[in-house]
Specification:
The protein is mainly α. The protein has one domain (4-94). It is built from three helices and no strands. The termini are far apart. The mean pLDDT is 92.
């Protein structure tokens, strides 16, 4: 069984691993071309998501409420990411 500290450490290391994927890919191909602002925005999204999930895991005790809230948080992350990436909703966030 993991302690709460170990779980938090594991959770907060996930964004670093995810952000290292495009960083490593940029070393091998020209098709991945992220700027500092891309890393900054994605880092904010990922760390905000992990912070919120960690908060849910600490404050809610029932498995059902945890799963529902974490599913909603991850769904929101995917929708915001998709909007920023390709503009599926046509909001000003996607740019022109």
């Amino acid at each position: 069984m993991m302690t709460q500290s170990q779980r938090s450490t594991l959770l907060y290391s996930i964004p670093f691993v995810i952000l290292s994927i495009p960083l490593i890919a940029m070393q091998f191909t020209k098709e991945v071309n992220w700027t500092v602002s891309d890393f900054l925005v994605m880092g904010i999204l990922l760390f905000a998501t992990v912070f919120t999930i960690d908060f849910v895991l600490k404050k809610f005790k029932t498995l059902k409420s945890r799963l529902i809230l974490i599913f909603a948080i991850v769904t929101l992350l995917v929708l915001v990411w998709a909007e920023l990436a390709v503009g599926i909703f046509g909001s000003p966030l996607a740019g022109s």
